[in-house]
Write a structure and sequence with these properties.
The protein is about 30% helix and about 15% strand. By secondary structure, the chain is an alpha+beta fold.
């Protein structure tokens, strides 16, 4: 009994380093058969990156002050894409008419919405980041009189989802879009939540 207690005390003092494991007497287990390597087919990145189904798209509407609600329609679509239908419903129930960077920021802050934005800085990297993370972003066009969503950006093209024409994605040359955006106060904004994972893409988009 004393020897057992001494051995247990010794093990507790030295930890695992003092334990020797002997595999020589263990029965042999046959190794698993070698499986053939799986070759996955190549596929292109989903196009557009923010592939919002039409059922989740939100049309612009005229608010109580006879102003378009394009900013709010754009945010509702981004909330839905990022899995926050509750915030899309909150926006729809409480906000309308026009908005601008400080106004939107104050209202998002009041509801503890996580978001990121840039304004009047011509920060193209923000839009690239928003698309690379599959969040997309609302951007101003037409001299900052209108907001649309960038749903895709690559080296050559930009995909635009306009809340005035939600039935189609408009593809425009990258430089033409950036010129329009920079001449429209270069406001870009997105909620920062979790978009769905990408899907394999084959063929051309609609």
């Amino acid at each position: 009994m004393k020897r057992l207690l001494f051995a247990l005390l010794l093990i507790s003092m030295i930890g695992c380093e003092g334990i020797k494991i002997d595999f020589e007497g263990a029965p042999m287990v046959p190794s698993a058969p070698k499986r053939p390597d799986v070759i996955y087919p190549e596929y292109e990145q989903e196009r557009p990156t923010v592939n919002l189904e039409e059922v989740f798209r939100q049309s612009n509407w005229i608010g109580s002050q006879d102003e378009g609600s394009c900013v709010w329609a754009s945010m509702m679509m981004l909330f839905r894409w990022q899995g926050r239908e509750d915030l899309a419903d909150l926006i729809e129930a409480n906000y309308e008419n026009g908005s601008w960077p400080s106004d939107l920021a104050a209202k998002f802050d009041a509801h503890d919405v996580r978001y990121a934005y840039t304004s009047q800085k011509n920060d193209v990297s923000f839009i690239e980041w928003a698309c690379a993370t599959r969040r997309g972003c609302g951007v101003t066009v037409q001299g900052a009189a209108h907001m649309v969503i960038v749903v895709h950006m690559d080296a050559e093209q930009v995909g635009i989802l306009d809340n005035n024409h939600i039935d189609e994605i408009k593809w425009v040359p990258r430089e033409a879009f950036l010129n329009e955006w920079k001449n429209s106060e270069s406001w870009a904004v997105t909620p920062v939540y979790t978009p769905p994972p990408p899907l394999p893409y084959e063929g051309q988009s609609k």
